[in-house]
Amino acid sequence: MKLTHLFVLFLIVTVPAALAVPAFAADGANTYKAKCAACHGPDGQGRVGPALKGTSLGADDIVALLSKGNEAKKAPHKKGISGVSADDAKAVAEFVKGLK
Ligand code: HEC
Question: Global pTM?
Fold first, then answer.
């Protein structure tokens, strides 16, 4: 096989794989935009919900709040947020912790 053929084969195999990965990886920023920003503001500055940037909660606390909810909190956090998988919850918690 010629070297160029190998290269083309390489591209055929790797390019779709590289493109496919982000579609499956949990994206905290996207989840935040879709599920949280309406209440907590696009930059976490707060709106209906409290500001999240600089929150004293740890990422694990946020994951727990999103996946299980907390009876002591107001809606929508009495229950877990629907449509947020465990991976999404983790990614969005990291995103929230990174808000400045
Ligand atoms: C419908 C509006 C709404 C949506 C959507 C929403 N929240 Fe909230 N959130 C609130 C309200 C209201 C509170 C305050 C609850 C309380 O203190 O009882 C809150 C509280 C929180 C807290 C606790 C803040 C603190 O300092 O105690 C965190 C963390 C949080 N939300 C994260 C998120 C994340 C992440 C998402 C997206 C997955 C999200 N919320 C979606 C309204 C919302």
Answer: 0.82
